[in-house]
Amino acid sequence: xxxxxxxxxxxxxxxxxxxxxxxxxxxxxxxxxxxxxxxxxxxxxxxxxxxxxxxxxxxxxxxxxxxxxxxxxxxxxxxxxxxxxxxxxxxxxxxxxxxxxxxxxxxxxxxxxxxxxxxxxxxxxxxxxxxxxxxxxxxxxxxxxxxxxxxxxxxxxxxxxxxxxxxxxxxxxxxxxxxxxxxxxxxxxxxxxxxxxxxxxxxxxxxxxxxxxxxxxxxxxxxxxxxxxxxxxxxxxxxxxxxxxxxxxxxxxxxxxxxxxxxxxxxxxxxxxxxxxxxxxxxxxxxxxxxxxxxxxxxxxxxxxxxxxxxxxx
Length: 314
Hints:
The chain has 2 domains: 220 residues, Aldolase class I (TIM Barrel); 77 residues, no CATH class. Helices cover 42% and strands 15% of the residues. It has 14 helices and 11 strands. It is globular, with a radius of gyration of 18 Å.
């Protein structure tokens, strides 16, 4: 049995990324009910709002689900208290050092996965005791690695470096891409952008429409002096790019970012001044689908392509 399927007790080795402002209980439960692993994105929630989403997810699915927690957020101790109190069994951590919180989570019977973008942090994550890692290539949306290592290069390097299961992320938007990730050594895939545009995603309809209309080159890794993040190009992005060209430092970018910029874009639908985080694969998304259909398309596309490769004559 696949290591990730066994670790999480899921049917398909497909994980829905825990995306801020997109991944509430509706999306997470829909993916879990379809046989994958749904994740609630805690990065856009207060501790008590997270509790509400966890409770609603429990009512909506009897299948395993998890929570993604960016470690750089304030009140992180309150978030982890909620996870333990609500009996969450799977936590994906990102954007920070997992060594502080992994022992605490493991001591409370929680399986821990950490998101990394280079070998250095993969080794640190493994040393901290995580059960698996997500290796995220720079094609991915949201927070990313400064090295700009592509998924094609990153996955085999990480699989060679660690002994724990590796989940591939970044540019996974089809069964063909999923098969490629497995060929590179991954045990599962994590998919964000496709699910950001799902019917059950809590993203604003304006943002979903922008994803459908995205063309090649419409996203770019930005804010590398602060926290690298892949953004869709809009008026806010142009301001960031100009600021970086003018030599903006961390404090300058923080001031420009302000408060609530991601909420303004992805959740409230301000396509001009909002922060629109999405992966390069957005240019290949052309339909808003239910999460179940997205997952089935991925899995059966994977099977079809696997059969084609198996029957390939050379």
